[in-house]
Structures are given as C-alpha cells and as structure tokens.
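Course assignment 3, question 2. Fill in each field.
Student: A.L.
Task: Predict the tertiary structure for the chain below.
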Amino acid sequence: MAVKAVGKQVGISAKKLRPILNALRGKPVTEALEQLRFSPGPNAESVAAVLRSAAANAENNNALDPTRLRVVGAFADQAVRLRRFRARSRGRAGKVLRPASHITILVDEQGTVGVGRGA
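Answer field:
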C-alpha cells in the first residue's frame, strides 16, 4: 500500500516543479534524495522536504522498511494563486499573480505494485 505525503501551498508554480518530479518517479528514495541534494535552486529543497516526510510516514505509520522504499508517484497540482497589484503609471494598476502548488509524493516498498495518481 502506497504511503502519501502532501506539501500544500508551496510558493512555486506547478509548471516549474513537474520536471523535477518526473525525474524522481520510479527511483529508490535514497537515490531520489541524493539527486535532489545536488539539484540547483530552492525548488529541489521543497520537493526533498515532502519526500522525506513521505519516507517518515511510511516508516512510522506503516512500519515499512526505509531502505526498500521507492517513489511510485510524484505530481504537482496548481493551488490558489495570490492576487496582488503593482502600481503603474497614470494611476493604473497591473495585476500580479503569485502561483503556488500542492506537491504530492507516493512511496511504497519495492516488492509491491505501485499505484497511480488516484490513490
């Protein structure tokens, strides 16, 4: 049974997170954390935090072996965008949208069958 961890309202757009998450899918958790450790930028740090949380959930709540964990699902969905405005010339206002996303990571032991997005 896959164990899930969700990072909500992460202040990064889902479009920027998806390539990072696509690279993690199917890898062992230890290898995925090493890859994120050497990835540039703060986006990888946010994904690594959720991945560590999923591994901890699997170990503590479901008594799964942390050395056999594998990433079976990883995706980012768009969250609520903050709407702001910036003052422009001649008394006008320019719209600024601050994107956020929800990061979901599913981990399971290597011997079991993975599940898709609907779990």
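Instructor remarks: Residues 3-109 form a domain with the Ribosomal Protein L22; Chain A fold (CATH 3.90.470.10). The chain has one domain: 3-109.
Grade: pending
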